[in-house]
Amino acid sequence: MGSEASTEVEKLGHEAVSVKNQPWLIADSASAQVRALFAQLVRASPDNIALAPSTSYAISQAAHNIARSGRISAGLRFALPWAGDVILVLQNQMSSNVYAWQRLCRESGARLVAIPEPQEETEEEPVERRPKRQRTDSSMSAMTLSPWDEALETAIRLHAQRSRIAVVAVPHFLWTDGSGPINLHRLRSVLDEVAWGRRTVLVVDATQSLGVVPIQAESWGIDWLACSVHKWLFGPYGLSLVYVSPEWSQDAATEPIVQDEHNRLGADGDVCLPFDLERPGYSEDFQEGARKFDAGGRVNPILIPMVAGALKQVLEWHPDRIGATLAPLTAQCAEGAASLGFQVPSFHAPHFIGVGPSAEDIERELLRGEGEATSRNRSQAAERWADAAAAYLKRHSIHVSSRAGVLRVSPHLYNTSSDVQAFLDKLASFRCEPWNQHKCTSNYRTSCSANVTL
């Protein structure tokens, strides 16, 4: 799901729809404004910003150009199964940033390696000793390493001993449970330290955090970054904003995955390129910078004004302040859930977190399913628990998402501490339902009459 747009962004959408009936009023200048605003947000130049219909499209475009550049190959893998180039991803990261790498590995012979989710300590600790929310401001590059940072570095150094790490494709925070962050600035330093010849390509899906947690795309050495605007940029569905580093955007050998007129030099606005009978065909020179990676077709005149308005709002509020506003609610959720015996990641985003079943909840699900306690069965038991808990909460007008065996709880700017407490109360009462009666050890039988979306 996406974050709700403001009433002002909704108003801009209605106005843009009305302009469709007066198409002569449609202006293309709004797309330049969107590039400039997004560039300000990721600390980059507007010349390095492209527009894509989705993050999966943007990542596919990155994979296409990485393959075309000759930066990935099977090497000696056919003789030595462990050799050849490697692409690293995280277990359970969003599929938009995985499918393209699966295909690239299948076609190139490179290996796709998924780094397993770090296993945190499970023994009981007093709440006051549990890690609190992490720093999420612009000084993030100096913060304590998260379990994901440690797992990534371990995997990078291990695989770099025998293989070339061609691509690392990661999120800033894992979309299922908010675990992280991944220290992207430090990650680039580690990759450069172990690189064999060509520099490892760093690809980031920032959809789950950009707008709440600052990112400095250029100075952190990110090659490709994509962010769907419907999450924490508070925009509509249907657009992903893409940062492409100068190394890629200014390379004459790179190209879009769709052949179209609108990203060609001279085809601005309603200008139509002349047909050259001697060629025959149209000019194939691209626009300068990352604009050549824009998706085909005219920029959507309904979405773009909405996105511009949403980006202005994010910049006015500033990600640091948004994160600081949401962090206490997320911390309340984490500490409350942990005190009830549920599992939460110790390092997590300031704006969302995964609440998972306790070991006892898993055992109960295994008994109900009459399955052996294998790793796969335990994962499936956690998924059943999360599905049942989310459905129960929804019946009580509390809306959270079931994701990979956890409840993803994502407070918004309109949520309050009482909303979080209502969630915790109902989650506790979920254990007191008839099928969980033997587990009911609390008096959490409260009611919640209002809709609460977290």
Quaternary structure classification: single chain
Strand content: 5-15%
Task: Write down the overall mean pLDDT.
Answer: 87
- Low-pLDDT runs of 5+ residues are 123-142, 441-450
Strand order of the largest sheet: 1-7-6-5-4-2-3
Largest sheet properties: 7 strands, mixed
Question: Any idea what the CATH architecture of the largest domain is?
Answer: 3-Layer(aba) Sandwich
> What does the overall shape look like?
globular
When the domains are counted, the total is 2
User: What separation lies between the terminal Cα atoms?
Assistant: 11 Å
Q: Give the full name of the CATH homologous superfamily of the largest domain.
A: Type I PLP-dependent aspartate aminotransferase-like (Major domain)
Tell me, what is the CATH class of the largest domain?
Alpha Beta
* H/E series: HHEHEHEHEHEEEHHHEHHEEEHE
Helix fraction? Answer: 25-40%
CATH-derived topology of the largest domain: Aspartate Aminotransferase, domain 2
Question: Helix/strand/pairing class, anyone?
Answer: alpha/beta
Our Rg estimate from Cα atoms comes to 24 Å
Total beta strand runs:
12
